[in-house]
Design brief:
The protein is an alpha/beta fold and about 350 residues long. It folds into 2 domains: about 160 residues, GTP1/OBG domain (Spo0b-associated Gtp-binding Protein, Chain: A), CATH 2.70.210.12; about 180 residues, 3-Layer(aba) Sandwich (Rossmann fold), CATH 3.40.50. Helix content is about 20%, strand content about 20%. The protein contains 6 helices and 14 strands. The strands form 3 sheets. The protein has a 6-stranded mixed beta sheet with strand order 10-11-9-12-13-14, sandwiched between helices. Strands 3-1-8-5-6 form a 5-stranded mixed beta sheet, with no helix packed on it. β13, α5 and β14 form a beta-alpha-beta unit. The longest helix has 29 residues. It is rod-shaped.
Length: about 350
């Protein structure tokens, strides 16, 4: 399935049904009086985050979402049926914007999060509603309220356990194909990956989702290259796997470029747990490899893992380091959820 992280959708709620203008007409009943029923309420348009979805590809082909109209009122004071709601089912992590693409309507980070986007119109009153002691034969009924219409922008920020980042051609796609069943496009030129790729990784007893994010370049936080929307995907990841191409000359420079972009983008990206990897060690002489590792450790101030995505050397060690961070985060989230469930005050 193709990954799509943005879609434009036209939505419309249902309009309310008209009230009915009717009078009771039966044999031997001379003054039956008004008996027009009210119109039914129009359906609402909802957005709901659901499980087992990780793309907005459905809305590439279904760009109009409309709720049902309410039925008109009928005689014998019968109220029209309410219109059926329309539900836009999206992956967790979806943000919904106004048509300008900047005004945020809502954020749906978790499964079962739900929000109303367009309210259905109320049904009109039938003439039975207007009967009074002084007006026993009202000859008017209200029309139903009109529907709400708007165009919205759906924007998905991936919720993955680990985000795989690095400059173009750092070997991210090769690494992903090595550790999972994902089949990203691999080539020896920059920006081979133009869309985020997801892979399910298993190491020992831990499973986690790894997202290969398209290569960042200097100025990405301002929209340069593939832009800051891919930094937005990294924003939702629990940890970051930072790959540095070991075949480059000045080894600390690519690391500093990416770190600067993370800090400039903000949103807590620079504070996420980071596993730093020196990749493509199969193409580096042992003497030069030791110097490059020492240089990168000095620049980063953290441990550097040595990996070859082609041969698989060092991959297991990196995956176990990631698994430790993921298990730690999941345990913390579980404790927070239990505490919230136990101690949350009654409303």
């Amino acid at each position: 399935m193709k990954f799509l992280d943005q879609a434009k959708v036209y939505i419309a709620s249902g309009s309310g049904g008209n009230g009915c203008l009717s009078f009771r007409r039966e044999k031997f009943i001379e003054y039956g009086g008004p008996n027009g029923g009210d119109g039914g309420r129009g359906g609402d348009v909802w957005a709901e985050a659901v499980d087992n979805l990780n793309t907005l590809i459905d809305y590439r082909y279904q760009q109009h979402i409309k709720a049902k109209n309410g039925q008109h009122g009928m005689g014998k004071e019968m109220t029209g049926a309410n219109g059926e709601d329309a539900v836009i089912r999206v992956p967790p992590g979806t943000q919904i914007y106004e048509e300008d693409g900047e005004t945020l309507i809502c954020d749906l980070p978790k499964v079962a999060d739900r929000v109303m986007l367009a309210k259905g119109g109320n049904g009109g009153f039938g003439n039975a509603h207007f009967k009074t002691s002084t007006n026993q034969a009202p000859r008017h009924a209200n029309p139903g309220q009109p529907a709400e219409e708007k165009t919205i922008i759906l924007r998905l920020k991936l919720i993955a356990d680990v985000g795989l980042i690095g400059l173009p051609n750092a070997g991210k796609s090769t690494f992903l194909s090595r550790v999972s069943a994902a089949k990203p496009k691999i080539a020896d030129y920059p920006f081979t990956t133009l869309n985020p790729q997801l892979g399910m990784v298993r190491i020992d007893t831990t499973d986690f989702v790894l997202a290969d994010l398209p290569g960042l370049i200097q100025g990405a936080h301002e929209g340069a290259g593939l832009g800051d929307k891919f930094l937005g995907h990294a924003e939702r990841c629990g940890a970051i796997l930072h790959l540095v191409d070991g075949t480059q000359g000045e080894i600390s420079r690519p690391y500093k470029i990416i770190r600067r972009e993370l800090e400039s983008y903000g949103h807590g990206l620079s504070e996420k747990p980071e596993i730093l990897v020196l990749n493509k060690i199969d193409a580096i002489a042992k003497a030069a490899l030791a110097k490059k590792k020492a240089s990168l450790e000095k620049a980063s101030g953290c441990k550097v893992y040595l990996v070859s995505g082609v041969t698989g050397e060092g991959v297991s060690e990196v995956l176990r380091a990631l698994a430790r961070e993921i298990v730690k985060r999941r345990d913390k989230e579980k404790r927070g959820t239990v505490k919230e469930r136990v101690w949350a005050p009654e409303r």
